[in-house]
Amino acid sequence: MVRYAIALDQGGWVVRDGITGRSVTRPATSEEAQQAVAEWNARCVTRKVDPPVKVDGWVPAGELRAWLRAEDGWWGLVSTRDGLRWIRAENLRQSKA
What's the distance, Cα to Cα, between the start and end of the chain in Å? Predict the structure, then answer.
């Protein structure tokens, strides 16, 4: 349940944002990228939601599994029929169903 991970891109290792899918660092060695991943993830605070809570967004979303607080705000990790996805907190509300 981390936001940032290491990925091979452009001939080197980069830190990839798991929400946006974009690289947030330039290509580097594996060791440098692993250190950067640890630093980027240390900036985030995550809290597991137990038990999961049914939530809706613009459409019925699924079950909220975790909250993540990062530099760009709060995100909810939601389990949907199609898998897990991050949704901005302001786009979520507890389901009335």
Answer: 27
